[in-house]
Design a protein that fits this description.
The complex is a heterodimer of chains A (115) and B (229). Chain A has 115 residues and is mostly helical. Chain A has five helices and no strands. The chains are: A mainly alpha (115), B mainly alpha (229).
């Protein structure tokens, strides 16, 4: 249970970063922290007490098969990480263009300048 | 002001998330579908890594969508960063130190080999196409850091990406004709467990994904490094 709350704390830290910071790069870091908090949470849902990685070897006995952790959240998080990378690269490219146009990373300055 | 509003918002959302988390037990037994995958993945797909059999076997169509999302993101990055005056050179960057440039010559082929190992063994060991592709892209990042004058062959990267994407879709369409007649059905022999040539179409698809992700991320690195002057 504590592990879930730590994930929630990480999520809240990312959200605070997103809401309170003015620098766009810091906002992006906040989004990435939130992304990883959700990934971490999904992975811990699949955990089983005394669990092992779900990879079958020649020596794997039926008892060990019972100890395998849930493979489904891991597969879904793999998707989530890749899509997180895609959105991150897109955000970074837009910030690069914004900086070239306005010469600042400060969100309040950028919204004042207008064109 | 901004920080106070942020903290109030955070407190409300935090309490909401915390209450919903209380109901979920930690370290509980698996979901039913997770049990099904562990019991039947060997017979159904022939892959011994259960996560791989879920990603490229049971949910291969999802993975095709995921690859598409990554492709669109790389395309969007290229479109946003495209400069009107064509490609700029990176002549203004100062050359890297001797250690980095000498280390690059030694490490570049080894990193490529490691990436290829990860995606060809995706059905046996931890790893797979996405991880292997990321490792391959990191080799190209090392080249960009060590020798500022060098660029990747862009038409080669585009060709690799398009061909491997087409291979993925073509394998899926072949599954409609052969095998059990659904999209991305396995039509190759499953082979013996725990050997390199096993699991039917899974290693082929993972090789295609590995090459596609590797060339895409190398293109992303190329676009971003072009901006540094």
């Amino acid at each position: 249970m504590t592990v879930y709350f730590m994930c929630a704390v990480l999520l809240m830290m990312g959200l605070y970063c997103l809401v309170a910071k003015k620098n766009i790069v810091k906002k992006i870091i906040g989004i990435v922290i939130m992304d990883y908090a959700v990934n971490l949470y999904l992975i811990t849902i699949g955990y089983k007490n005394n669990g092992v990685a779900p990879i079958i070897e020649k020596t794997t006995s039926p008892e060990l098969l019972e100890r395998f952790v849930d493979p489904l959240p891991q597969a879904l998080v793999l998707t989530s990480i890749v899509i997180g990378l895609g959105t991150l690269s897109l955000m970074v490219s837009m910030v690069i263009r914004l900086y070239e146009k306005h010469g600042t990373f400060d969100m309040s300055q950028i919204s004042k300048l207008r064109g | 002001m901004r920080a106070t509003v942020g903290l109030i918002l955070l407190a409300v959302i935090g309490v909401g998330v915390g209450i919903s988390l209380l109901a979920i037990p930690f370290g509980a037994p698996k979901t039913e579908i997770g049990d099904y995958y562990i019991e039947n993945a060997r017979e159904d797909t022939g892959a011994t890594n259960v996560v791989t059999s879920v990603v490229v076997g049971y949910r291969a169509f999802d993975t095709l969508g995921e690859v598409t999302v990554l492709f669109v993101a790389a395309l969007g990055l290229g479109a946003v960063l495209a400069t009107a005056g064509g490609k700029r050179g990176r002549s203004g960057v100062e050359p890297a130190s001797l250690i980095l440039s000498a280390g690059n010559i030694f490490l570049f082929p080894l990193i490529l080999l490691f990436g290829a190992y990860i995606f060809t063994h995706g059905h046996l060991t931890p790893g797979g196409g996405f991880q292997g592709g990321a490792v391959i892209a990191s080799a190209f990042l090392l080249v960009y850091l060590s020798s500022p004058g060098k660029r990747i062959n862009e038409s080669g990267a585009t060709l690799t990406e398009s061909v491997s994407g087409l291979v993925f879709v073509a394998i899926g369409l072949l599954g409609l004709t052969y095998g059990t007649h659904y999209f991305l059905a396995n039509f190759l022999p499953k082979g013996t467990l725990n050997t390199l040539f096993s699991a039917g179409i899974i290693p082929v698809i993972y090789c295609a994904i590995g090459l596609k992700v590797g060339s895409e991320l190398a293109g992303v690195v190329d676009n971003l490094m072009e901006e540094t002057e």
